[in-house]
Amino acid sequence: MLTIHAPIDLVMAETQCWNCKASTPVSSLRAHAVTGPEGNSVEGVRITNAADLPADLKQAIHAVNPNFRKGFSRTAEQTYFANHCSHCGALQGDFYMYMEPDGPFFAGTVPEGATTTRLFEAGDWQAEAGYGS
Ligand SMILES: [Zn+2]
């Protein structure tokens, strides 16, 4: 279990869908800090591979990005909250977004034209999720 600390931002960018090749919006959830199960804290992280998220956090994300929902990733072989193509519904996996050189948020970068929405100014949340910088 991960504890997520506000401020929490949602960064929106465009990427090309691997399936239908259309341009689709995708988002990256960023937190001021997280505290891991062993009590270690890390600042300035993105939340990834979330198996579950608190209801108010889900709601706030959905208000900005309705295509962020639970889906099964064949690459990760797990069900988690991921971006989906706004045209064909194909899952845009976290691995592609963050780990592939042509992914929109590769290695913690934020692409040109991205917009950031502050979701929460204060608060802590418990989530079943991973994180990365
Ligand atoms: Zn598509």
Gyration radius over CA: 14 Å
Tell how many strands the DSSP assignment holds. 8
Strand content: over 45%
Our count of helices gives 2
Please give the alpha-carbon distance between the first and last residues. Answer: 18 Å
Helix content: 10-25%
Morphology call: globular
Helix and strand string, N-terminal first?
EEEHEEEHEE
Low-confidence stretches: none
Q: For the report, how would you describe the main beta sheet?
A: 5 strands, antiparallel
Bound molecules: zinc ion
Q: Mean pLDDT, as a whole number?
A: 95
Which structural class best describes the helix and strand composition?
Answer: mainly beta
The tally of structural domains comes to 1
Verbal overview:
This protein has 133 residues and is mainly beta. The protein has one domain. It has 2 helices and 8 strands, in the order βββαβββαββ. Strands 1, 2, 3, 7 and 8 form a 5-stranded antiparallel sheet that branches. The chain has a 3-stranded antiparallel sheet with strand order 4-5-6. The longest helix has 10 residues. It is globular. The two termini are 18 Å apart. 31% of the residues are buried. The model has no long low-confidence stretch (mean pLDDT 95). Zinc ion binds next to loops.
